[in-house]
TrEMBL record, chains A, B:
Gene3D superfamilies: 3.40.1280.10. It holds the Pfam family Methyltrn_RNA_4. It comes from Nitrospina watsonii. InterPro entries: RNA_MeTrfase_C_dom, tRNA_m1G_MTases_N. The lineage of its organism: Bacteria, Pseudomonadati, Nitrospinota/Tectimicrobiota group, Nitrospinota, Nitrospinia. It comes from the Bacteria. This is Methyltrn_RNA_4 domain-containing protein. Residues 7-186 form the tRNA (guanine-N(1)-)-methyltransferase C-terminal domain.
Length: 190, 190
């Protein structure tokens, strides 16, 4: 039923993330993020786009929205949106995403996380681009709010540099950052 | 008063554009586009981001929103959004954008438009990237809806390939396409 058989997946994580003052919180799901990122994921042939939130009310909200576009009036009104959402799934926590990929593919995914800090497993874009040509499953994890809890980043297989502004301004919406990162890692070379 | 002195500008045009069935229409301004694209423009050091619509009520809406974030409560609540919006302006039609750039810089901008069709002045990304290193003013024009009226594209100095999906799916939100295109044309090379 999925629209692609790609071995590269992405997750948008709403817990555990930091808020403005450094507390670990659960951020709210933005339905617009689900729309935009579904389209971006489809454009770059992503296997599954996982929306990760432990809040049941938010899970219900996202599921209801996806049902509208996949099966309800939205499916005939806007078929390209339906197509985009065929590979979007909602999960409780990142461990459930890893379990889902492992169960469906028989392989544990390697985890890649963009983060502003430098880690021993930090790599540049050309290196990760090459890594992604290999066989096996990959999961690129994006945090919302003020970024993913550091422990999660420390346990990643690879850490990727964030998108740096040309003049010190680093406040891209997460949906824009995801578009740029997937383009750098997956677009056909000119 | 602008946050940068860059000679590269962008415009988001709401008229004349095509709708789903090929009529030439005025599309509605999405305030979210103004927010996202202001941040993206600021990230890549764009001179001015022009929101182009001939509808006065929509111009008032955008101006009021920008005033809130630049001077109102929003300016203290979210200073990075204020900073992003310092270089955003509203104009009636594309000719007014060209006049504004010419008046402020003393030079007529060269116009670059991404379009799915091939034109005599079509160029690839590396070529336009090199072009943008030159002196002089440049204006990259993005259409909303189902794309800019063809006559506008035909009169552009350069036409740029659109962002192609890896599998025939070409339905990126305009804000995602702008993020990717500016990254390809202006990001520091790895």
């Amino acid at each position: 039923m999925t629209a692609t058989t790609s071995n590269i997946h992405i997750a948008l994580v709403h817990f555990p993330v930091y808020n403005k003052i450094g507390d670990i919180v659960t951020s709210s799901v933005t339905t617009l993020d689900v729309h935009d990122i579904s389209r971006i994921a489809r454009t770059y042939g992503i296997g599954t786009f996982y929306v990760v939130t432990p809040l049941e009310t938010q899970q219900v909200l996202v599921e209801r929205m996806m049902k509208h576009w996949r099966e309800g009036y939205g499916a005939t009104y806007n078929p390209t949106r339906k197509e985009a959402m065929l590979s979007t799934r909602v999960k409780n926590v990142l461990a459930d995403v890893v379990a889902d990929i492992t169960e469906r593919s028989g392989q544990t995914p390697k985890i890649i996380i963009p983060d502003a800090k430098s880690f021993p497993q930090s790599r540049d874009y050309p290196t990760i681009r090459e890594e992604l040509q290999k066989e096996g499953q990959y999961l690129i994890v994006f945090g919302t709010g003020w970024g993913l809890e550091h422990g999660m980043v420390r346990r990643a297989d690879f850490v990727l540099a964030p998108i740096d502004g040309l003049n010190g301004y680093n406040h891209l919406p997460v949906r824009a950052a995801i578009a740029i990162i997937l383009d750098r890692l997956l677009a056909r070379q000119a």
